[in-house]
Specification:
The complex is a heterodimer of chains A (482) and B (95). Chain A is α/β, with parallel strands linked by helices. Chain A contains 15 helices and eleven strands. In chain A, the strands form two sheets. Chain A has an eight-stranded mixed sheet, sandwiched between helices. Chain B is mainly alpha-helical. Chain B has a domain of 39 residues. In chain B, strand 1 and strand 2 form a beta hairpin. Classes of the chains: A alpha/beta (482), B mainly alpha (95). At the A-B interface, helix 9, helix 10, helix 11, helix 12 and helix 13 of A face helix 1, helix 2 and helix 3 of B.
């Protein structure tokens, strides 16, 4: 089942199979393997077959659009009208979204079929999906290991061949890290590129929707339907969306790729470093010029991120109060008891930890010392990138400091879990677009190479990734379940 | 910066979050550990640097003051925990 979007489109166009047939194949595979991989929270089989039927009719009528008849999976953070949208939380276990997120609306309008909603860390807070109310998803390459997070379900579904591609969100690495750990391709666009309307908020100045697929070519197609200005999202940016597929084949001879010296130093696993060096060599062969750049303030991205993201999360999650939707405790004795117990019982451990820290950082007397200070350092981190991009077109870095870790290995130590995101957080702080592409293996587990481009330069990012995939076959390795 | 159990109780109240007595101690330790990490920020002199609220320094967009939302009241009330006569119900607030 490890088909790409491109292969499915070709098959549909040639009449090799119908959308109903390919959708049914995926649903059968999901039913067989989801109990093991646990990558889906909700399987929308009836809806999928209905959408596939409509797609087949459109194809027959010669009215096919960009993704007509292609089955896809969506992270359970995107509101889907009439379908449970849990965000991986007990708080929203009973929540049937009353409207569609703009991302869902755009993808539906392009004719795609929804297979289901994927597993994730509760409210996108985590790096392993172990914080999901529905239990962890597992890594298809080794079921004892995590698929990464927070969009771990989407990544595992694509890697296992239980969806050709999937949506995700990335607040601090939640697309790039699971893409790396599951050996697939993931893209997080520029902040403001993809609408956040109907995407359940975690850190509003960091959150960005994006995509997982087997290839950069497929990512280009999916991002094409997702990107664009949305007046319903006040932080959406009105900036033209180019045709990403058109520039994939561009020659990268003379492309300047910068390697931040800080990221290829201490703390990076030596096997991973070896894999990445080989990947960089591949770029040399393709004619890219490799130069050193410096991002001196990026070492502070972990503390900056955990102040900014947690402050924003404590504010965003105050809407879950047990009054209008979501979980409500039994027999509240008064309004305060209703708030406190609904939230105390509805949220999991990590979410509570983050709300507490964020509340503390924003409380009277501490605001300047934490939130304001973090926002100042955040600007310094952004300025490092601005300087680097005066000299280079693309920055290459590791995606993760190690391969997928074992389930349970880091759950008792929040700080060691936070340090898993050491190479991904700065991108969200700066608001830049980034990708992770499969670059090789260490101990039989996939290793990702992270590529970073300047603001709104997703086209160059996808082109750079696609050229690597034309010259290598790491992205064709499959952990497909049999 | 180390947080005591009393601090955690106070923060939990501000966040309207019930935290069990058995977990208070652990939260105090966990939160203190994260604060140690955050203290690295003090290494840096940031005087004169404008705090960054938006990655692209965009400002709030304004729109015409016109109705552009459709009425979804029934849909919203269908998923509410407790409604009566079109109103959301909570325990009595005023005696």
């Amino acid at each position: 089942m490890s088909k790409t979007i491109r292969q499915i489109q070709r098959g549909l166009a040639r009449g090799e199979f119908s959308s109903i047939e390919i959708t049914q194949d995926y649903l059968t595979a999901i039913k067989a393997h989801n109990p093991t991989i646990n990558c889906y929270i909700t399987i929308t089989d009836e809806l999928a077959l209905q959408q596939a039927k409509t797609a087949d009719e459109r194809i027959a009528a010669g009215q096919a659009q960009a993704l007509t008849g292609v089955p896809l999976a969506h992270k359970d953070i995107f509101c889907t009208d009439g379908v449970k949208t849990s965000c991986g939380s007990k708080m929203l276990d009973n929540f049937i979204a009353p409207y569609n997120a703009t991302v869902i609306e755009n993808i539906e309008a392009s004719g795609a079929v929804m297979l289901g909603k994927t597993n994730m860390d509760e409210f996108a807070m985590g790096s392993s999906t172990e914080n999901s109310y529905y239990g962890p998803a597992v890594n298809p390459w080794d079921h004892q290991r995590v698929p990464g997070g927070s969009s771990g379900g989407s990544a595992a579904a694509v890697a296992a061949g239980l969806a050709p591609a999937a949506t995700g969100t990335d607040t601090g690495g939640s697309i790039r890290q699971p893409a790396a750990l599951c050996g697939i391709t993931g893209i997080k666009p520029t902040y403001g590129r993809v609408s956040r309307y109907g995407m359940i908020a975690f850190g509003s100045s960091l959150d960005q929707g994006g995509a997982f697929a087997r290839t950069a070519e497929d990512c280009a197609q999916l991002i094409q339907t997702m990107a664009g200005f949305d007046p319903r999202d006040s932080t959406s940016i009105d900036h033209p969306v180019p045709n990403y597929s058109e520039t994939l084949d561009g020659n990268i001879k003379g492309l300047r790729i910068g390697l931040p010296k800080e990221f290829f130093a201490d703390g990076l696993d030596s096997n991973i470093a070896g894999v990445l060096e080989a990947a960089i060599d591949e770029y040399r062969k393709l004619g890219a010029e490799i130069v050193e750049v410096s991002l001196p303030n990026s070492k502070l991205s972990v503390p900056v991120y955990y102040v900014v993201a947690l402050a924003e999360c404590s504010s965003n999650l105050s809407r879950f109060d047990g009054v209008r939707f979501g979980y409500r405790c039994e027999n509240p004795k008064d309004l305060e008891d209703l708030y406190k117990r609904s939230r105390g019982e509805g949220f999991g451990e990590e979410v509570k930890r983050r709300i507490l820290l964020g509340t503390y950082a924003l409380s009277a007397g501490y605001y300047d010392a934490y939130y304001l200070k973090a926002q100042q350092v955040r600007r310094l981190i952004k300025q490092d990138f601005e300087r680097a991009f005066e000299d280079v077109d693309i920055i290459a870095a590791p995606t993760t400091p190690e391969i997928a870790f074992k389930l349970g290995e880091k759950t008792d130590d929040p700080v060691s879990m936070y340090l898993q995101d050491i190479y991904t957080l700065f991108l969200n702080l700066a608001g830049l677009p980034g990708m992770s592409i499969p670059a090789g293996f260490s101990q039989g587990m996939p290793v990702g190479l992270q590529l970073i481009a300047n603001y709104f330069d997703e086209a160059r990012l996808l082109n750079t990734a696609h050229q690597f995939q034309q010259a290598s076959d790491w992205h064709l390795q499959s952990a497909e379940v049999k | 910066m180390t947080l005591k159990t009393e601090d955690v109780r106070n923060i939990a109240h501000l966040a309207r979050l019930q935290v069990d007595d058995e977990s208070i101690e652990r939260y105090a330790t966990d939160l203190s550990n994260v604060l140690v990490l955050v203290e690295q920020l003090n290494q840096l002199d940031t005087s004169g640097i404008t705090p960054m609220a938006h990655p692209l320094d965009a400002t709030q967009r304004l729109r015409d003051d016109a109705v552009n939302e459709t009425d979804l009241r029934d849909k919203f009330q269908n998923i509410a925990p407790d409604v009566k006569n079109g109103l959301y119900r909570v325990p009595k607030v005023i005696e």
